[in-house]
Design brief:
- The complex is a heterodimer of chains A (165) and B (109).
- Chain A is mainly alpha-helical and 165 residues long.
- Chain A has a domain of 75 residues: NADH-ubiquinone/plastoquinone oxidoreductase chain 6, subunit NuoJ (Four Helix Bundle (Hemerythrin (Met), subunit A), Up-down Bundle), CATH 1.20.120.1200.
- Chain A has six helices and no strands.
- In chain A, helix 2 runs antiparallel to helix 3.
- With 109 residues, chain B is an all-alpha fold.
- Helices cover 76% and strands 0% of the residues of chain B.
- Chain B is built from four helices and no strands.
- Chain B is elongated, with a radius of gyration of 18 Å.
- The chains are: A mainly alpha (165), B mainly alpha (109).
C-alpha cells in the first residue's frame, strides 16, 4: 500500500520539476523519470502490456524524439523565454482552481472501494490482444492509417523546400 | 510476486483519481507558465499520461479490458501528435529562429 503513495509522491515531484526546470534538457530528463514512475504504477496495477508499451513508446521513442528536436534547435541558456511573475501566479491560481473543482467533485462522491483485481489476467498481452483484434479491429486498422499519415506529414513539414529556398 | 501485487489492492480508487487530477493540473499549469514550445508539448504529454493512468485504474477496478485498449490507442495518437508537432516546431524555428510562442502572435486580433 505504501509503495503506491511513495511512487505517487515521486510522480508529482518530478512532474513539478518538469515544468519548473529552467533548462529544457533537464525538463526532458525529469519527464523520463515521471514516465518511469507511471510505468511502475502500471506494474502495480498488473497492467503488463500497458507498462511495457509505456516504457518502450513513451520513454524510448517519444522522449528520444524530444531530445533530437532539442538538439536540432540550438538553444542557449540565455534565450530561454520566461513569462512575467504576474502571469505565472495567475497560471498557478488557474490550475489550482481546476484541481480544487475536481477534488471537490471527488469529495462529493464519498469514499470509494479499493482497487481489487477482479481478473488477474486482465492486463496480459494474451487477454488484451483478443479484445483488440476482436472488438476493436477497425479502430486498430484506422490507427495504422493515422500513424502513416502522421509520418508522411512530419517528413513533409520538416524537410526544406528545395524549390523556393 | 503475489504479495507484491497484493500491495496495490488496498489503494482506494479515489486516490488514483486524486493522483491523476494533480498530474493533470500540473500539466495545465505547465502549458500556462512556459513560453518554450517544446516544454509546452511536454506538459501536454503529462496531461495525456495522467488520463492514461486513470483509464488503466478504472479498467482494473471494473475488470474490463476495454480501458486498457483505449490507453493503447491514446499512445498511438500521442506518438502521431508528437511527430507532427515537433516537425512544426522545427519549421517555426527555421522561419523565426526562435521557439518562443510569443513570436507567433500574427493571428492575434
Amino acid at each position: 500500500m505504501s509503495i503506491f503513495y511513495f511512487i505517487a509522491f515521486l510522480s508529482i515531484l518530478f512532474a513539478v520539476l518538469v515544468i519548473s526546470a529552467k533548462n529544457p534538457v533537464h525538463s526532458i530528463l525529469y519527464l523520463v523519470l515521471t514516465f518511469f514512475t507511471f510505468t511502475i504504477q502500471y506494474i502495480l496495477l498488473n497492467a503488463q502490456f500497458v507498462a511495457i508499451v509505456n516504457f518502450i513508446v513513451y520513454m524510448g521513442a517519444i522522449l528520444v524524439l524530444f531530445l533530437y528536436t532539442l538538439m536540432l534547435i540550438n538553444l542557449n541558456k540565455n534565450s530561454e523565454p520566461m513569462k512575467t511573475n504576474l502571469v505565472k501566479i495567475a497560471a498557478v491560481l488557474g490550475g489550482g482552481c481546476l484541481l480544487v473543482v475536481v477534488v471537490a467533485a471527488l469529495k462529493a462522491t464519498g469514499a470509494s472501494d479499493p482497487v481489487l483485481f477482479k481478473d488477474p489476467n486482465l492486463g496480459l498481452v494474451k487477454n488484451l490482444g483478443k479484445v483488440l483484434f476482436d472488438e476493436f479491429l477497425l479502430p486498430f486498422e484506422i490507427s495504422s492509417l493515422l500513424l502513416l499519415s502522421a509520418m508522411v506529414g512530419a517528413v513533409l513539414l520538416a524537410t526544406k523546400d528545395t524549390k523556393t529556398a | 510476486m503475489e504479495s507484491f501485487f497484493k500491495t496495490a489492492q488496498t489503494v482506494p480508487l479515489n486516490h488514483y483519481i486524486l493522483l491523476s487530477a494533480i498530474i493533470f493540473a500540473i500539466g495545465v499549469i505547465g502549458v500556462l507558465i512556459r513560453r518554450n514550445a517544446i516544454v509546452i508539448f511536454m506538459s501536454i504529454e503529462l496531461m495525456l499520461n495522467a488520463v492514461n493512468l486513470l483509464l488503466t485504474a478504472f479498467s482494473v477496478y471494473r475488470g474490463d479490458a476495454t480501458g486498457q485498449v483505449f490507453v493503447f490507442f491514446i499512445m498511438a495518437l500521442a506518438a502521431a501528435e508528437v511527430a507532427v508537432g515537433l516537425a512544426i516546431i522545427v519549421m517555426i524555428y527555421r522561419n523565426t529562429n526562435s521557439i518562443d510562442i510569443n513570436v507567433l502572435n500574427r493571428l492575434k486580433w
